[in-house]
Amino acid sequence: MKNSPNDLRIGFGYDIHRLVEDRPLCLGGMMIPHTKGCQGHSDADVLIHAICDALLGAAGLRDIGFHFPDTSPEYKGIDSTILLRNVMQLVYDNGFQPVNLDTTIVLERPKLSSHIPVMKKILAGILKTDEAAISIKAKTNEGLGPVGNEEAVAAYAIVLLHPSSPL
Ligand code: MG
To answer: What's the gap in Å between 6 CA and the centre of ligand 1?
Structure first.
């Protein structure tokens, strides 16, 4: 699809997953050492799910549950980076590519600062952008609510798309 050069699109995504024992903690396409992990049909990578929804929203392509239903055995335990690659393909097919991505992960523990450079590299590779165009922030919920009680991890993402350059 060909879009006009001025057709910029902004998209927002949010996700939350329950934290449970005996699950790996997958965030931003990597495994984070921790005593708990997120529950979910896929690998439950809450950050990648929020990014998928931001991309789909910006391109006007519904949401992650529409494309990858959690009732489908095909997506059981799936690596969410595969879902993100599929979403990026849909974005390209609709004539867009990312300008930049800004995200926030909300969780009490563990500290993510040392893992963020690796996550940025993974996401920049999938989104085909410079790492400088990817922002990942992490903060606690100040002990408040389910996230503050370490019962859940939440993530927010916002993305800007512009029309793809001709090949
Ligand atoms: Mg999710």
So the answer is: 32
